[in-house]
Every structure is written in structure tokens, then in C-alpha cells.
Specification:
This protein is α/β, with parallel strands linked by helices. It has 15 helices and 7 strands.
Length: 318
């Protein structure tokens, strides 16, 4: 595939084109992902999540600057809310990260959630794989900031950074979202504001109450992303977490879990698409809809009937 060759040669336009194909679920996307898969698995992925207003994008930009000083190349996947009209990303983190984008060692791409409730786009995993194959050393995935539905980031990131800020009621968000379980590192951003110390104390209390099952105690870092304060310390904890994962053979374990989940999703998608296509061609879908509308049957029975009929087709090899 010509696009793959261009991507592997360092053509940033080819990378952008590949991401567009994946995000739009174009016909060529599946073949593209098949070809680049053997070239993935080299980059380290850091997830950045937290409620809106905590300064995730500014923190990501500060992290990019530190990583680049260390000589690392960086890819950024910034997931934004979806426009109800165009389906595109509303906020556009590329606009908020103009300075890092001028660096050829940085690639930033905004993705729309497209209605996905996990704080990430459905295409996020494939986009991470494309940037990985392109050769970036570190990939930062910034979630949309939905607040209470962002645990999906665990599937893609080796290390998850939960960002909070004083005075925004984040401690309540943390408890509701269950982010205590997904956070490998906690960053109290905007730490130059009043109340930062109290936020750190509350976090320490919550972490103290949580059972320490894995052997890793999440550190808490005060950061001021605007000035870069605390960002080097944050990335130092990331490196220590990555070393800890390797020492305990957890990198492979995480990857295995992610691959299993990906296969389950692709299998469900393929089966669903096949079932709907066949039911539509045969007119069963339309007839079923009419029966449910006229209340001859309920939607649950309707779905059970369609599944039973078409599962038999699959078993018969049709």
C-alpha cells in the first residue's frame, strides 16, 4: 500500500491522511491497519485525563517541551467534543498547541468523540497505532474531559495521569468517576492558586483509604503548566512507573488485555454489521420494525428473533 510506504518514510501528510481514513472508517482503513500492525508496539503511551477546566491541554504542551529537550519525539492525540452539525472536533487542541506544532519532532491531532461516552473517540486506538508505526517515541492521549466516563483511557495508556485543579470541586469528580482506580500519577495543576495544598491533602487521604493491591503507590505532583513548574518531576514519575511495569512484567499483561478487548470489539462490530446487512437485504429488519411499531412484539423479543435466525445462518455457513 503506497500510503504505508509514505508513512514509514516520515511523510507527515501520509500520517494525517491515514488518521482521516481511520476516523471516517473508510474502506481503505482496514487494509491500512493490517499492514502497519507488525510495526507497532514501540512507543510509550501516556494518558492525560481529568475534568474540564483543569488545564490538561496546557499541561500536555508543557510535557511536550520537556520531552523534546530530552530528545524524544512526541505524538499527541487530543480528543475533543463533537460538533452536532459537522461531526468534527469543536475545541481543536491543535489551535491551543501552536508552539509545539512548529517542531518536526511533534505531531498533534485532534479527534472528535463522535458521541462515544468513554471520553475517547472509537478511532483512538487505531490512531495511536498509526503514530506508533510512524516512529514517535512517546504518545500523549488527552481525553475530552467528560468528567465521569473516562476510564477508557486505561486501555490505551501504559501510564494514566489524572489532572485536578484547586477550587473546581475535583475531589468530588474523582470520587464519582472512580478515577482513584485508574490514576497512576495525580497532577494537581494550577498549584499557584489558593487551595492547592488542601487538594493535595484530600488526595492523599483518598489514596490512603484505597487498598494498595498492585504495589505501586500513585504519587501526587503539584504543577503549574503555564510556567512548566513540576512538569519534569511529573515525567520523572512516569519513567519510574514505566520501569516498575517492566520489572513486574505488566507491560505485556496490559497489552494482552488491550488486544483481547480490541478483538472482542472488532468481532462484535463485524457480526453486527453482517447481521444488519443480511436482515436489511432480506426485508426482515423492516418487517421487524413494523411489528414493534404496531406492538405485535416488543423490541427485546424482536432482537432475540433476529439473532436466533441469523446465528443459524452463520452456523450453516451461509
Amino acid at each position: 500500500m503506497e500510503l504505508v510506504q509514505r508513512l514509514l518514510s516520515g511523510d507527515r501528510r501520509a500520517l494525517a491522511r491515514g488518521i482521516t481514513l481511520v476516523e471516517n472508517r473508510a474502506e481503505q482503513a482496514e487494509e491500512l491497519m493490517k499492514e502497519i500492525y507488525p510495526l507497532t508496539g514501540r512507543a510509550h503511551t501516556i494518558g492525560i485525563t481529568g475534568a474540564p477546566g483543569v488545564g490538561k491541554s496546557t499541561l500536555v504542551a508543557a510535557m511536550i517541551r520537556v520531552l523534546r529537550r530530552e530528545g524524544r519525539t512526541v505524538g499527541v492525540v487530543a480528543v475533543d467534543p463533537t460538533s452536532p452539525f459537522s461531526g468534527g472536533a469543536i475545541l481543536g487542541d491543535r489551535v491551543r498547541m501552536q508552539s509545539p506544532q512548529a517542531d518536526r519532532g511533534v505531531f498533534v491531532r485532534s479527534l472528535a468523540t463522535r458521541g462515544h461516552l468513554g471520553g475517547l473517540s472509537r478511532a483512538t486506538g487505531d490512531v495511536v497505532s498509526l503514530i506508533d508505526a510512524f516512529g514517535m517515541n512517546v504518545i500523549l492521549v488527552e481525553t475530552v474531559g467528560a468528567g465521569q466516563a473516562e476510564v477508557d483511557i486505561m486501555r490505551y495508556a501504559q501510564t494514566t495521569v489524572v489532572v485536578l485543579a484547586p477550587g473546581l470541586g475535583d475531589e468530588i469528580q474523582v470520587l464519582k468517576a472512580g478515577m482513584m482506580e485508574i490514576g497512576d500519577i495525580f497532577a494537581v495543576n494550577k498549584a499557584d492558586r489558593d487551595g492547592a495544598g488542601r487538594t493535595v491533602l484530600e488526595l492523599e487521604m483518598m489514596l490512603g483509604l484505597a487498598p494498595e493491591e498492585t504495589g505501586w503507590k500513585p504519587p501526587i505532583v503539584k504543577t503549574v503548566a503555564r510556567t512548566g513548574q513540576g512538569v519534569e518531576e511529573l515525567l520523572g514519575h512516569w519513567q519510574r512507573h514505566l520501569d516498575w511495569l517492566r520489572q513486574n512484567d505488566l507491560v505485556a499483561k496490559k497489552r494482552r488485555a488491550r488486544v483481547e478487548e480490541e478483538i472482542r470489539e472488532l468481532l462484535a462490530q463485524k457480526l453486527l454489521e453482517g447481521l444488519v446487512a443480511r436482515a436489511s437485504r432480506n426485508g426482515d429488519l423492516k418487517r421487524t420494525v413494523e411489528k414493534v411499531v404496531s406492538r405485535e412484539i416488543d423490541p427485546y423479543t424482536a432482537v432475540e428473533n433476529l439473532v436466533q435466525k441469523y446465528v443459524l445462518y452463520y452456523q450453516a455457513g451461509e
